[in-house]
């Protein structure tokens, strides 16, 4: 049986030391119930022969650069654990920050539910979290992937929240009478030219349709979402989106041209422009 150091050193060709240690600690905690104290006290060596074989199978997958979240079948988001599988985007800390921003701005309601739409829900982490953390929220969520919707629905059931999921392409939003207080989205926003700078575990294993947008139009999804939202939000309703810092200025200009006001860009924990909020005015005049 390998000790903790020998385990994380296997991953240093892929990750720096801090991240390699974190990946191994996550495996030992989630799959084998070991606390950090247990790990540092050498209790990895106390695992049974069967547990040792299971650990080696996990390490083999990790050495192939498979994300630990897929190996374990779950990821943490906003202090909760969500099921994830290959083909479904792994929740990101930046999206947690977007979620926290939305929650922080909600005021007590007059008894009517706060209607929220999550466009491109993936694992459902954002929709489920908003449903749990905003009292009286009535949350719906779209995704173009049937596989993602199956996982999102499982996560909603696991957390016992009544999120309404629908198979829907964000680029072909319905023209209906539905009105929302909030529309939130973490759409694809990475251009293919940025792939060279991305980690191999992301490129090899995560769904490209949830990550990449055509090089010719990096704002493709934002334009579609903004044009839908300017009509579908209630007056003074809010649009919240995760953004690509490279296109911050173009995004802000586009939102203004569509008719949004009070546009605010916020930085993430790493100091990058990562989130935007825009308000539908009481009267809209689309340009």
Automatic annotation (TrEMBL):
<dbReference type="InterPro" id="IPR029063">
    <property type="entry name" value="SAM-dependent_MTases_sf"/>
</dbReference>
<dbReference type="Pfam" id="PF17827">
    <property type="entry name" value="PrmC_N"/>
</dbReference>
<dbReference type="InterPro" id="IPR004556">
    <property type="entry name" value="HemK-like"/>
</dbReference>
<keyword id="KW-0489">Methyltransferase</keyword>
<dbReference type="InterPro" id="IPR002052">
    <property type="entry name" value="DNA_methylase_N6_adenine_CS"/>
</dbReference>
<feature type="domain" description="Release factor glutamine methyltransferase N-terminal">
    <location>
        <begin position="19"/>
        <end position="73"/>
    </location>
</feature>
<feature type="domain" description="Methyltransferase small">
    <location>
        <begin position="114"/>
        <end position="194"/>
    </location>
</feature>
<dbReference type="GO" id="GO:0102559">
    <property type="term" value="F:peptide chain release factor N(5)-glutamine methyltransferase activity"/>
</dbReference>
<keyword id="KW-0808">Transferase</keyword>
<dbReference type="InterPro" id="IPR040758">
    <property type="entry name" value="PrmC_N"/>
</dbReference>
<protein>
    <recommendedName>
        <fullName>peptide chain release factor N(5)-glutamine methyltransferase</fullName>
        <ecNumber>2.1.1.297</ecNumber>
    </recommendedName>
</protein>
<dbReference type="InterPro" id="IPR007848">
    <property type="entry name" value="Small_mtfrase_dom"/>
</dbReference>
<dbReference type="InterPro" id="IPR050320">
    <property type="entry name" value="N5-glutamine_MTase"/>
</dbReference>
<dbReference type="GO" id="GO:0003676">
    <property type="term" value="F:nucleic acid binding"/>
</dbReference>
<dbReference type="GO" id="GO:0032259">
    <property type="term" value="P:methylation"/>
</dbReference>
<keyword id="KW-0949">S-adenosyl-L-methionine</keyword>
<dbReference type="InterPro" id="IPR019874">
    <property type="entry name" value="RF_methyltr_PrmC"/>
</dbReference>
<dbReference type="Pfam" id="PF05175">
    <property type="entry name" value="MTS"/>
</dbReference>
């Amino acid at each position: 049986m390998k000790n903790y150091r020998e385990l994380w050193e296997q991953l240093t060709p892929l990750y720096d030391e801090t991240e390699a240690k974190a990946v191994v600690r996550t495996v030992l905690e989630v799959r084998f119930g070991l606390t950090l104290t247990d790990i540092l006290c050498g209790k990895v060596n106390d695992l049974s022969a069967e547990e040792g074989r299971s650990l080696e199978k996990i390490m083999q997958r990790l050495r192939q650069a498979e994300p630990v979240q897929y190996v374990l079948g779950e990821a943490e988001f906003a202090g909760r654990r969500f099921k994830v599988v290959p083909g479904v985007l792994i929740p990101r800390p930046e999206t947690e920050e977007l979620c926290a921003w939305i929650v922080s701005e909600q005021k007590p309601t007059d008894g009517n539910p706060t209607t929220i739409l999550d466009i491109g829900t993936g694992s459902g982490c954002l929709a489920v979290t908003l449903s749990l953390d905003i009292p009286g929220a009535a949350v719906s969520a779209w995704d173009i992937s049937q596989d993602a919707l199956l996982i999102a629905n499982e996560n909603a059931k696991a957390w016992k929240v009544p999120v309404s999921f629908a198979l829907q392409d964000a680029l072909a939003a319905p023209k209906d009478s539905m009105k929302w207080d909030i529309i939130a989205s973490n759409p694809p926003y990475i251009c293919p030219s940025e792939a060279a700078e991305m980690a191999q575990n992301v490129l090899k294993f995560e769904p490209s349709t949830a990550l990449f947008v055509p090089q010719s139009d990096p704002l493709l999804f934002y334009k579609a979402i903004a044009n839908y939202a300017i009509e579908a939000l209630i007056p003074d309703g809010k649009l919240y989106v995760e953004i690509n810092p490279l296109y911050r200025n173009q995004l802000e200009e586009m939102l203004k041209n569509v008719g949004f006001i009070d546009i605010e860009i916020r930085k993430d924990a790493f100091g990058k422009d990562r989130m935007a909020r825009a308000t539908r005015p009481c009267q809209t005049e689309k340009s």
